[in-house]
Amino acid sequence: xxxxxxxxxxxxxxxxxxxxxxxxxxxxxxxxxxxxxxxxxxxxxxxxxxxxxxxxxxxxxxxxxxxxxxxxxxxxxxxxxxxxxxxxxxxxxxxxxxxxxxxxxxxxxxxxxxxxxxxxxxxxxxxxxxxxxxxxxxxxxxxxxxxxxxxxxxxxxxxxxxxxxxxxxxxxxxxxxxxxxxxxxxxxxxxxxxxxxxxxxxxxxxxxxxxxxxxxxxxxxxxxxxxxxxxxxxxxxxxxxxxxxxxxxxxxxxxxxxxxxxxxxxxxxxxxxxxxxxxxxxxxxxxxxxxxxxxxxxxxxxxxxxxxxxxxxxxxxxxxxxxxxxxxxxxxxxxxxxxxxxxxxxxxxxxxxxxxxxxxxxxxxxxxxxxxxxxxxxxxxxxxxxxxxxxxxxxxxxxxxxxxxxxxxxxxxxxxxxxxxxxxxxxxxxxxxxxxxxxxxxxxxxxxxxxxxxxxxxxxxxxxxxxxxxxxxxxxxxxxxxxxxxxxxxxxxxxxxxxxxxxxxxxxxxxxxxxxxxxxxxxxxxxxxxxxxxxxxxxxxxxxxxxxxxxxxxxxxxxxxxxxxxxxxxxxxxxxxxxxxxxxxxxxxxxxxxxxxxxxxxxxxxxxxxxxxxxxxxxxxxxxxxxxxxxxxxxxxxxxxxxxxxxxxxxxxxxxxxxxxxxxxxxxxxxxxxxxxxxxxxxxxxxxxxxxxxxxxxxxxxxxxxxxxxxxxxxxxxxxxxxxxxxxxxxxxxxxxxxxxxxxxxxxxxxxxxxxxxxxxxxxxxxxxxxxxxxxxxxxxxxxxxxxxxxxxxxxxxxxxxxxxxxxxxxxxxxxxxxxxxxxxxxxxxxxxxxxxxxxxxxxxxxxxxxxxxxxxxxxxxx
Length: 863
What we know:
- By secondary structure, the chain is an alpha/beta fold.
- It contains 33 helices and 19 strands.
- The strands form 4 sheets. An 8-stranded parallel barrel has the order 1-2-4-5-6-7-8-9, surrounded by 7 helices. It has a 4-stranded antiparallel β-sheet with strand order 10-19-12-15, with no helix packed on it. It has a 4-stranded antiparallel β-sheet with strand order 11-16-13-14.
- α9 (177-190) links the parallel β6 and β7.
- This is tRNA-dihydrouridine(20a/20b) synthase [NAD(P)+]-like.
């Protein structure tokens, strides 16, 4: 009895003094967490693996409640060394449940006393079937005596006086389901906060779990039930919740293989490896455990030889290099990392940057038609693609409808951080919910006090705010002056009527404090902005500001360091109505309808490719290298629009823009453009003779052709790095784009000069002269249209500019390509003109193309 009173005294002292302790960890009410977040996504206790570093990684990818590995309570109480080895945490590691293995109330409560200030609850393991645990009368051995187990929990609940401190139990089921229900009801009566149920018996290992078991247990209880077993994806989580009604779903092995499972990723994303390396390095994780986690994450991605190579690695540097190479090759499948740590990227990825270049050179693009120049061009293109991919990885700008990451901010950092720019459509008053814009998501780190604001900025104000925060003496008052006049804030600006900001971070497991009506918040999220404009579509920017309102309602900087985790969605139309128009719901207004445009263009060019393939297989140009080059150019257009379609489909399906795909598309467009221009120059230069008759021109062409190609690709890469911040835009809107237009004018000048010389040679043939005049005037329009667009681009509204420019480019290129394809048609006017030319010899032309290609190869190898 005295022992029990001593326990009560310890708990009273802990509760009374917890506000004055140096540990500033925020306490989370686990019961409220279940009521606010269904289904709650939980990581299971995993011996050796669910330590602090791995829990940090899981929280980064959507895990809402973490368990420590199972700890033997008796050893934990008796040994300081055991406590240091088995348990570690920090202020950001929340909410957290510590799981103990114990066979009596004293050990369980004493262990809970030790960790009380550093966690939000304790869990008693009653499911572990391992021999060591059974020999200690712990784990699943407790299931042999249900009454003893219930009494153990009852006494623990009486002695742990903080009613908000969670006590839970993790059990396995009995063969008789009724016995399982009886045990759960006894534990509920004993005072547990929630119960974790593994859907297998003690004897079972890998047998399938019956979801109906969870449903029966849930229907018999009033407390939250957590289901565990056979969960391999996010869809399984939602399936358990919908079909069994459980409030939480616990995942173990599948999280080791894919820590991003709760985000919906079907395999470990590329950035996850680099985050794990960062956390492991910061926490000095032992190499064996670090290596084991990497092995789990890569398990499904490696072949047999790679797994053997990984197993032989014995030091961190070798492992870093192996992961960097492996993940670099996988980046094309996974998409762009959201925030790969720059240190790791520079040390472990760029040292092997050529690996991506090697990987990107597919054998099927090598010349199977004896065209050596195609090999040179493909090497040039894929090397440039590699460079663009690496630039994209190291860029901070993510063009996406879904943004997620961490905001690490201190007193020396800029006051304003732009997250995204998004065009919201015009609102229809007759159908508000379907046509409004919505921004919703979560932003938290467990801090209780405001540390900044998430703000919404109209496009009209963005330049003014950017000017302020870039100035040397920028202040929060200047930065927030416009919003202070308009935005509502309950304490300081109660008379304003606009909804433009949220105080951050939001409480873990609850909505943001500025959300005054829970029904206005999208279910499962902490905050929601509703954008409504019945006058016009408009661009809005989302930003984080390192400013707070002090007691006198003045804007002042937040001087402490903050590390926030956020996940935000920007969409047109209510999320529940996304199926009404899935091709536009997740697109910014200036990109709506672009998927349909790209699909149409892709189909059109596929048809053109088929037509030209037929013409060169049945006409006199079968061995004519110009016709084969034209076929490859049409194929480049098909590939370009296929890449664009893939980029748009990724947004439709997952809401994330795969930025390297976008940049590779730009490179394909630019490559096809300059090669088509060079083909036109060659056509004009060699008409109707071959290069053999004009050795000076052949030399000029073989020098300036590769130079023009190199300049075009270089400027395209520069344009990729010079895009307007957070706005999708065409390359003609950048300074390298203007240089590309200047290069285009030079190529046009070259084309017209050579055409004029060819006209002088055709004075005796009026038909061929007329053909050249029409040919030159038509393709001069193609050369000049993009320059005219560049001059007029500022006249288009930014809301329509992107799709208008892409539509015009598609139309102009299709007409130009179709006209050239028609010239190679068996019954075309070109056939007749060449047939009437006694000097024409297709074999000579073919041979001269070989000389031209050889000159390109020599020129390329010399550089």
